[in-house]
Write a structure and sequence with these properties.
The protein has helices spanning 22-37, 54-58, 64-68, 88-102, 121-129, 134-137, 148-163, 167-181, 195-200, 228-234, 261-273, 290-299, 308-313, 330-333, 338-354, and strands spanning 4-11, 46-50, 79-82, 107-115, 203-205, 208-209, 218-227, 240-249, 282-284, 367-377, 380-390. Helix content is 38%, strand content 19%. The mean pLDDT is 94. It is α/β, with parallel strands linked by helices. Strands 3-2-4-7-1-8-11-10-9 form a nine-stranded mixed sheet, sandwiched between helices. It has a two-stranded antiparallel ribbon with strand order 5-6. Strand 10 (367-377) and strand 11 form a beta hairpin. The protein is built from 15 helices and eleven strands.
């Protein structure tokens, strides 16, 4: 297996863009990443396009990648469409990494793009309930919020019973994320919050309030991956090395089972990279609801079982702390255009390692980790990626 590097990375602003098409968002991200890498579309040997909602919202059930990327100059290259719920973008990255590592492509492109805003909000919310076993559990067509917030609420209640975490702790996660997002010009929401504002926002699914939940939005992100030989040809000045790219599916676990797919994937990623959680300098993780961040602290080994609340309260995961988490603002503030999220996390971490994040820069960052989960199966996330980048 060859070494693989990120040669270029780009993310569009995230937000509600009713008049901007999925195709335009994908084009912006693709053009930006190729320009950052100094590569032309004709040099790309493989393309992986992550998207979740185009079938449900636009009836583009097939050839999503070819349709979305037809204005980029990439037609003619092998294009693979990837759907893996909220992990679609990071799964596209995982496949692009595999192509370069295996030698089937010298340069590969991972694109994640999503257009979730729609005139009929019920259709948008219905997208999320397709991320579980619809045959067994049905769909939530006509709902007023993402059905996954009900899933997260149940997980949060069990977490509170096990650890003593409070709604105030969940609110602190949102406050931290929005404080970071205020420093990110591409974030969907850039207004700082207080704990009181988070707690007083309307209840979505107890104990989750609106400001503890990630918003609906649109956006795209893309990354160019290259072999060492391709880097020399491109003349890439500031590449970032992919130390590990792990993809796992969930298993039929009971909800309270401590062995989860993210924990197993994290173990595999640390082994592949030859490091431990203590070596990680900065993290982007899947905080679709605020309690998820506390839970993932434990799954990644950043905190001992039961120690997540103490880690949060210590300030270790804030900017300036030992291991800042979600300096981009995370899903709560940067936004969560589902298929774009995984790639957006990796763009943020690439920029962190390159030292180009401005006021949210984690000084001296050398090792970065992204955790991105998607869907729900049994008592576990259906798909999860752990990606470790380094200098």
């Amino acid at each position: 297996m060859r070494e693989v590097f990120v040669a270029g990375a780009f993310v569009t602003p995230f937000g509600k863009f009713m008049d901007t098409s999925l195709r335009e968002l994908a084009r912006q991200a693709t053009d930006g990443a190729l320009a950052d890498a100094g590569a032309g579309p004709e040099e790309v040997g493989a393309v992986f396009f992550g998207n979740t909602a185009a079938g449900a919202l636009n009836e583009q059930h097939a050839i999503r990648g070819q349709v979305a990327l037809q204005d980029t100059g990439l037609l003619g290259a092998p294009i693979t469409s990837v759907e893996n719920a909220c992990a679609s973008g990071s799964t596209a990255f995982n496949l692009a990494h595999a192509a370069v590592a295996a030698g089937t492509a010298e340069i590969a492109l991972a694109v994640g793009a999503e257009k979730l805003t729609h005139a009929d909000k019920a259709k948008t919310f219905a997208v999320f309930s397709s991320g579980w076993d619809v045959e067994r559990f049905g769909s939530e067509n006509g709902g007023t919020h993402s059905a996954f917030m009900d899933v997260y609420a149940g997980i949060a209640r069990r977490f509170m019973e096990r650890t003593g975490a409070t709604a105030e702790d969940f609110a602190e996660i949102s406050v931290k994320s929005h404080r970071n997002g205020a420093l990110n010009p591409n974030a969907q929401y850039r207004d700082p919050l207080t704990v009181e504002q988070v707690l007083e926002s309307r209840t979505v699914s107890d104990p989750l309030t609106l400001l503890m939940c990630s918003p609906i939005g649109d956006g795209a992100a893309a990354l160019v991956l290259a072999s060492e030989e391709a880097l020399e040809r491109l003349g890439t000045a500031d590449p970032v090395k992919v130390l590990a790219a792990i993809l796992r599916s969930g298993t039929k676990l009971e909800p309270d089972d401590e062995v989860t797919a993210p924990a197993l994937a994290a173990r595999d990623a640390y082994d592949r990279a030859g490091i431990g959680p203590e070596d990680v300098d900065v993290v982007e993780m899947h905080d679709a609801a605020a309690p998820a961040e506390l839970i993932v602290y434990e799954e990644l080994g950043l905190a001992e079982p039961g120690g997540s609340v103490e880690l949060l309260r210590s300030g270790a995961t804030s900017l300036g702390g030992r291991v800042p988490v979600n300096p981009s603002g995370g899903l709560l503030s940067r936004g969560h255009p589902v298929g774009a999220t995984g790639c957006a996390q990796l763009v943020e971490l690439t920029d962190q390692l390159r030292g180009r994040c401005g006021g949210r820069q984690v000084e001296g960052a050398k090792v970065a980790l992204a955790e991105n989960g998607g869907g729900w199966i049994g008592g576990d996330v259906a798909a999860v990626t752990i990606t470790i980048l380094g200098r």
